[in-house]
Amino acid sequence: MENGIKKLNDVIEYIEKNIREEITCSELAKITVLSEYEFRRIFSFLVGIPLGEYIRKRRLSLAAEELKSGKYSVSEIATRYGYDEFSSFTRAFKEMFGVSPSEAKQEKVKLELLTKPRFTLSVQAGMVMSYTEEELPEFTIKGVCGESQLSDTCCCESVWQRYEKKEQKIESDDNVIYAAYVNGERNVLCYIGMKTSTKDTEEGCLQIDGGKWLCFDLSVSASEKEINDFYERIIFSFLPSSIYEKDDNRPNVEVFGQDEYFIIMIPVRAK
């Protein structure tokens, strides 16, 4: 747990040092040695806002400080913080602070800035986590695939929207939906559809090796915050004290059933 907290603080410092550059989720996930999907879930839970929103608000907060200092003009600051168009910067600034950049330069205008967080270790009582173990053969998820956007409110939100809009949703006979989350070159790749034992290399298909899985049951009505919290407990509390470690050769899988059940499947191997 302590090592995990240090890595999260390292992520915050990395963002600060590179705040005026393009920052990818894959870069940040590597620092924590988590999958991008787990990293985004845990970051959102601990910071209270999604990763993309945090980066955007930190950029605008630092831009606002520089505006107040008078060191740079509004157009210079817009360019420094990656806005190609002055109008885009002005719109984003006003959306966050309620005033335009020019108005923000006035002495009596107060701005609510987002400061960088610092994570500290707190000792908590042991927790009870219920799960089942399953040894599964190789299987395929067949459906739609897409890359999660950093601007998504929750990870892979845009891919789920594509799946919901699909005229003929690819589901199993019992209406169980499977979703797998794989690290792409720059972001998370999300596969959503049915589970099949037939190998398939078509677009939207993902073959997953056989092995042991730990299956955690959650309520289908669990909020995004509760799901993110659950991932944080699995990765930082449960697994470090377990006889298992995460198998990074296989992705996390989430299962959504018609009887309103929701299962998080974590691939593991013996330590």
Quick structural overview:
Helix content is 38%, strand content 23%.
What does this 3D model show about the protein?
- The structure is a single chain.
- The radius of gyration is 21 Å and the shape is elongated.
- It has 271 residues and is of the alpha+beta class.
- Strand 8 (252-256) and strand 9 form a beta hairpin.
- It starts with a helix and ends with a strand.
- The model is unreliable at 123-127 (pLDDT under 50).
- Strands 1, 2, 3, 4, 5, 6, 7, 8 and 9 form a nine-stranded antiparallel sheet that branches.
- The chain has helices at residues 2-17, 25-32, 36-47, 51-69, 74-80, 86-97, 101-104, 157-165, 224-238, and strands at residues 131-136, 139-147, 177-183, 188-196, 205-208, 211-219, 244-246, 252-256, 261-270.
- The chain has nine helices and nine strands.
Elements, N to C (H/E): HHHHHHHEEHEEEEHEEE
Number of helices: 9
Secondary-structure-derived class: alpha+beta
Largest sheet: 9 strands, antiparallel
Q: What form results from the Cα inertia axes?
A: elongated
Q: Percent range for helical residues?
A: 25-40%
Strand content: 15-25%
Q: Nearest-angstrom radius of gyration?
A: 21 Å
The pLDDT mean sits at 84
Please tally the β strands and state the result: 9
> End-to-end span in angstroms?
17 Å
Unreliable stretches, pLDDT < 50, 5 or more residues? 123-127
